[in-house]
Amino acid sequence: MSRTLGTVARGVRTPIFREGDNVVEGVVSSVLTALKENGIQPHDKDVAAVTESVVARCQGNYATVEQIAADVKAKTGGKTVGVTFPILSRNRFSLLLSGIAAGVEKVVLMLSYPSDEVGNHLVSLDQLDEAGIDPWHDVLDLEQFRAAFGKVIHPFTGVDYVDFYKGIIEDAGAQAEIVFANRVQTVLDYTDTVICCDIHTRQRSKRLLKKAGARVVLGLDDLLTAPVNGSGYNPQYGLLGSNKADDTRVKLFPRDADVVAKAIGQRLSVATGKRIEAMVY
Predict the structure, then answer these.
(1) Quick one: average pLDDT of 38-58?
(2) Is 133 helix (H, G, I), strand (E, B) or coil?
(3) Gyration radius of the chain over CA positions
């Protein structure tokens, strides 16, 4: 007899997780209750999955703009800092930029174009063609960018991210200079101190900058790797993977996620008599 069903995923309703809660106890209790109340028989190789956000929230793994600023100032010297290739995101980057800017005197913000690394477009390829601009060769300042493309309103958010990010920097008390380029080494024409804010290509960016003679090269994964004035932290990922928690704090990626996953899997396996695995995603 052939199988007609493959993998089945079920969402488990849980109580609200809050800072200080025992995430292992909460997940295990919720899953066991759901199995019992719905008459579901667990099987070997079943997987219980919990989001990283829940784990980080229970750990209280948060950092404020002021704590980010303190780390940035300590690690860069707090003068002119290049901030290269950030994604265009209010949730993922706006508070990070505010913290960076609050820790320095000037930010040279270098945006990739026509889009960021995850595909959020500043301008279209057709606009580049019409303007006769080669994004792999041409370096634009803000005046040149505006002359070629005018305002660039994101079609879904309605935000002009160029103005939005410039305003964040200035509101934090730093001077802002905006550059549009796609070779990370270009930022060294403005400063020898750089925070690489790209995600998937960050190691390459760091390598190219160091080879080109940069004095200080950091990534988001090099900030908040240890507590700063009582902040949360992540020794491996730092600010990488963080997102906005409220108007003044970001939630960092959780620490020791493998320990949490193993504990959940072991507890569920003992309780059910089946080999249950767990993951934090």
Answers:
(1) 96
(2) coil
(3) 23
Two tokens at 246?
A: 């409220």
Find tokens 């901030």 and name the residue.
Answer: 83
pLDDT per position as a tens digit, 203-232:
999 999 999 999 999 999 999 999 999 999
Q: Name which of 148, 95, 157 is nearest 121 in CA terms.
A: 157
Establish whether the linkage from the previous residue to 114 is cis, with ω within 30° of 0.
yes
Cα distance between residue 211 and residue 205, in whole Å: 10
Residues 6 or more apart in contact with residue 254 via CB below 8 angstroms: 52, 55, 56, 59, 61, 234, 260, 280
Q: What's the whole-number mean pLDDT along residues 93-111?
A: 98
| Cα gap 119→135, rounded to integer Å | 15
Phi-psi region for residue 153, left (φ > 0), alpha (ψ -120 to 50) or beta?
A: beta
Which of the 8 DSSP states describes residue 62?
E
Q: What are phi and psi of 204, to 5 degrees?
A: -65, -45
pLDDT tens-place string over residues 227-267: 999 999 999 999 999 999 999 999 999 999 999 999 999 99
Give the pTM: 0.92
Site of tokens 């750089």: 194
Closest CA relative to residue 79, chosen from 99, 101, 97: 101
DSSP letter at 253 equals P
Q: Which residue has the tokens 């040279």?
A: 108
